[in-house]
């Protein structure tokens, strides 16, 4: 068998003995073993587009929060959602075919099985983050796309959420659901305009320092700032850790994952007490806030905090607009959500909380079932989505007083400000700033809404993380046998204890989370559970 597909696949042979999996956020591993995967992802993207009659499909080359030597790739559905699970399986199968002939046969088998007409146009949008391996891997995807005869738009460097935005814009262009102009400028204009309108003349207090993880978020935030209202009228932003010329510094001692996991500011931070700071991750789809309090103690305002802040604000505005009876807000979290955050949402905000496994796609699906679904992972990954019915209710609603109109205007502006295709650090950050400005809050007031339970997150390297299998939204282990009972025993020894272990979908490690009434108890519990995991996993 020969032909363009066989030739393209032969050009990028798969290393022997490696098994690839489309995980939490696509394929992600060391960049030097990804060439074959990228070419095959190009083929899958073309098939997926053809299966949807030529709709644009996104390919993002990034390993987000992972170290600089890693890379990865994920596929984006036409409305900017994560790839459908059925196609994750196809992608995994495609990546693991042994020979070029097998790949070509599989490509045609899938086309036959899904009744995909290979003459239908295939349209694919590609972009990448600033990793050194990105250019080479882009070449590998292009070879796959070319072999499959796809039409390609290459946006160069983008944040992951910008790529999602482009995909959604391209597929909704000239329809009643048009999301925006599919250009970088279009992105900046849409979100900066919504920011200005949502602020309603209010000004966030103080400035904001943004750590960009030395990733693609740095240059993109600098561009966005040019479109925002002048700092005298709105917000002064200081950009730090934006060195993309040195890709080996990506996510190193900076960025959202560093701050969340280590519960400390990047060592490079020069912020003083009370200064509001936030950190993006390597591809700018996560954001966490933090500050030093008056005693110089580091205080984290993570994804749970963003969810509670935003849910309470939107709840207030919807109530003030007179829409409380027709629109219900819900919050979606994962097992990593702090117990105090869950309690605050349920008991104080009186909102429903759903818990799903880790991975944006799971949270997104759960949020889609709500009128307004506020979903955030504790690590800062999340957004808010409004159901079609809710959007219609809001669009048709006639306010009955100036107060109702004012609140309704804010709701409209927030809908535009929130990147509803996916969690977007830049859009989330602007939303947080709007809420703080309306509430006239600094980070201390935000922190005072509830007290987090002390917690600890650890990474354990084991021989084979795949033996760690979970149930109950990853809160309990079903394998290795007997391990959960041992964890339960440790949990019972501390006050307000909770702990779980799960295999990471993006790194070769098992993650252990523990929380308890005191810092010492939380750290002790995390250490003990990590030890149990190590023993069971043959570290
Ligand atoms: C990705 C996923 C997130 C997930 C994170 C960690 O984030 O998109 O949903 O929380 O990985 O996942 P895991 O614990 O399975 O390694 P990112 O920002 O790295 O793309």
Distance between the termini: 44 Å
CATH class of the largest domain: Alpha Beta
- CATH topology heading of the largest domain: Alpha-D-Glucose-1,6-Bisphosphate, Chain A, domain 3
- Number-wise, the strands total 19
The helix count comes to 18
The whole-number mean of residue pLDDT values reads 96
Question: Which small-molecule species are bound to the chains here?
Answer: 1,6-di-O-phosphono-alpha-D-glucopyranose
Which runs of at least 5 residues are low in confidence (pLDDT < 50)? none
The CATH superfamily title of the largest domain? Alpha-D-Glucose-1,6-Bisphosphate, subunit A, domain 3
CATH architecture of the largest domain: 3-Layer(aba) Sandwich
Computed CA radius of gyration, to the nearest angstrom: 23 Å
- Number of structural domains: 4
- The largest sheet has its strands arranged as 1-3-2-4-5
Helical coverage, percent range:
40-55%
- Strand proportion, as a percent range, falls in 15-25%
User: What would the principal axes of the Cα set say about the shape?
Assistant: globular
| Most strands sheet | 5 strands, mixed
Protein name: Phosphoacetylglucosamine mutase
Binding site for Mg(2+): 64, 281, 283, 285
Cofactor: Mg(2+)
Active site: 64
């Amino acid at each position: 068998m020969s032909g363009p597909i066989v030739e393209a696949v032969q050009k990028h042979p798969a290393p022997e003995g490696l098994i690839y999996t489309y995980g939490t956020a696509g394929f992600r591993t060391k960049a030097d073993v990804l060439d074959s995967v990228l070419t095959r992802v190009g083929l899958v993207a073309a098939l997926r587009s053809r299966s949807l009659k030529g709709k644009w499909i996104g390919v993002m080359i990034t390993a987000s929060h992972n170290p600089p030597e890693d890379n990865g790739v994920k596929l984006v559905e036409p409305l900017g959602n994560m790839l459908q699970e059925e196609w994750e399986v196809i992608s995994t199968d495609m990546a693991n075919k042994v020979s070029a002939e097998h790949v070509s046969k599989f490509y045609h088998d899938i086309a036959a099985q899904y009744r995909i007409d290979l003459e239908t146009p295939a349209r694919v949008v590609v972009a990448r983050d600033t990793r050194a391996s990105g250019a080479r891997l882009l070449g590998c995807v292009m070879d796959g796309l070319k072999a499959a005869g796809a039409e390609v738009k290459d946006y160069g460097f983008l944040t992951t959420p910008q790529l999602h935005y482009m995909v959604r814009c391209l597929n909704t262009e000239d329809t009643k659901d048009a999301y925006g102009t599919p250009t970088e400028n279009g992105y900046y204009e849409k979100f900066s305009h919504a920011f200005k309108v949502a602020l309603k003349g209010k000004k966030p207090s103080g400035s904001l320092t943004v750590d960009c993880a030395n990733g693609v978020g740095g240059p993109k935030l600098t561009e966005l700032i040019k479109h925002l209202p002048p700092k005298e009228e709105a917000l002064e932003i200081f950009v730090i850790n934006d060195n993309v010329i040195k890709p080996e510094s990506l996510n190193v001692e900076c960025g959202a994952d560093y701050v969340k996991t280590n519960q400390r500011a990047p060592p490079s931070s020069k912020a003083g007490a009370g200064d509001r700071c936030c950190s993006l991750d390597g591809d700018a789809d996560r954001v966490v806030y933090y500050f030093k309090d008056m005693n110089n103690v580091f205080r984290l305002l993570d994804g749970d905090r963003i969810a509670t802040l935003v849910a309470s604000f939107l709840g207030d505005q919807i109530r003030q607009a007179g829409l409380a009876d027709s629109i219900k807000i819900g919050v979606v979290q994962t097992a990593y959500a702090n117990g105090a955050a869950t309690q605050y949402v349920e008991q104080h905000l009186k909102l429903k909380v759903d818990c799903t496994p880790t991975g944006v796609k799971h949270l997104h699906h759960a949020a889609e079932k709500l009128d307004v679904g506020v979903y955030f992972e504790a690590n800062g990954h999340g957004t808010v989505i409004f159901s079609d019915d809710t959007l219609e209710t809001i669009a048709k609603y006639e306010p009955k007083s100036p107060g109702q109109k004012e609140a309704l205007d804010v709701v409209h502006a927030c809908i535009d400000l929130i990147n509803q295709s996916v969690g977007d650090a830049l859009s989330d950050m602007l939303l947080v700033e709007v809420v703080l400005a309306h509430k006239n809050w600094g980070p201390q007031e935000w922190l005072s809404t509830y007290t987090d339970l002390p917690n600890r997150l650890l990474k354990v390297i084991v021989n084979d993380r795949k033996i760690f299998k979970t149930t109950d939204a990853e809160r309990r282990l079903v394998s290795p046998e007997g391990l959960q009972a041992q964890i339960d025993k440790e949990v019972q020894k501390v006050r307000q204890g909770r702990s779980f272990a799960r295999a990471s979908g993006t790194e070769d490690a098992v993650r252990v989370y523990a929380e308890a009434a005191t810092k010492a108890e939380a750290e002790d519990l995390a250490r003990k559970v990590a030890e149990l995991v190590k023993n069971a996993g043959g570290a």
